[in-house]
Amino acid sequence: MMNRSKPIDVAILGATGAVGQRFIQLLEGHPWFRVRELVASDRSAGQRYERVARWVLPGNPPADVACLDVLPLDADLQSPVVFSALPGDIAQAVEWRLAEAGHIVCSNASAYRMHADVPILLPEINAAHADLIGVQREKYGWGGGLATNSNCTAAPVAMALAPLRQFGIEAVQVVSMQAISGAGYPGVPSLDIMDNVIPYIGGEEPKLELEPRKMLGALQDGQVALLDCVMSATCTRVPVLDAHVVSVSVRFAEPVAEDDIRGAWESFVGPEPVPGLPSAPLRPVVVRTQPDRPQPRRDRDEGGGMATVVGRLRPCPVIQGWKFVALAHNTVRGAAGCSILNAELLAERGFLA
After folding, report:
1. Class of residue 339 by CB neighbours under 10 A (exposed 0-12, middle 13-18, buried 19+)
2. What CATH code would you report for 8-151+336-348?
3. pLDDT, tens only, 153-189
4. Active site residue 338
5. Would you list the domain boundaries of the chain?
6. What is the pTM of this model?
7. Is 152 an active-site residue?
8. Tens digits of per-residue pLDDT, 257-291?
9. Residues with Cβ within 8 Å of residue 225, at least 6 apart in sequence
10. Which one is catalytic: 103, 229, 235, 244?
């Protein structure tokens, strides 16, 4: 358990981008962490943050962050915790180097999600996967560690399915309706997305078919065994600002009653110490019984944006199972908020000692 006598300094990679800004917003007033270093590309490095960051979130950046000078990507960072909002190609080199240097890196990037020694943490469903940090230290001889969070669309899929693992998940079909903020800033051109749905997002479908299986898998002998099921995904972009919605059909090994599925969702909680972490929602999965919920505008801020909201549970005659709709805030639970919760878990588990 961490010593909370003083806050832990953190750095943010990709601090000027939309997800980097969400990190800064969510970390304001955090009881354990304080932002002390900001890192961005060469065109921003050496300048004050308030001058180079085009703030796209409500309000303004916190004053104690706005006055910080932006550091280059090759900076010798002092913060023990590093949050990464870098593009995947840049993260490939930077994140590993920082873990080697002794930092705990909690990444929103895709670069290392499927690396055998790197966990995709969604603490309520796979907190035990944090033990891979110990595997990394033994295997690579470093004092740091690297953990990722999932693709923003995989988060509500995995969270909604996690309570249902007990019924023997055999097959899952997913159709996503993804918010434009998931494309970063400035996002999708207005003439493409207005009055339109785009039925393709490059690279998303393979992630959505594989990452949930890793998150829902079991840690065995220092490796994650993927959940033994087949997944099929179709990803679309819709004209919604924030929150990804997924339509999910699932087939189980045995017949399952509707009340059993609802009960599994409503009673689901994460293992200790997850429920007591500062960023953990009171209820990870929130069930809506109204026939027209969940909806992005009405449900994305549930649990401070960290909850997954499910509804429209009904039989699926095609897959011979059940189908439902799930929603999560893509830049909070699906990005920065989950990385912060991951860091809280690693701190509480003693990996920052």
Report:
1. buried
2. 3.40.50.720
3. 999 999 999 999 999 999 999 999 999 999 998 889 9
4. no
5. 8-151+336-348, 154-329
6. 0.96
7. yes
8. 999 999 999 999 999 999 999 999 999 999 999 99
9. 217, 218, 219
10. 244
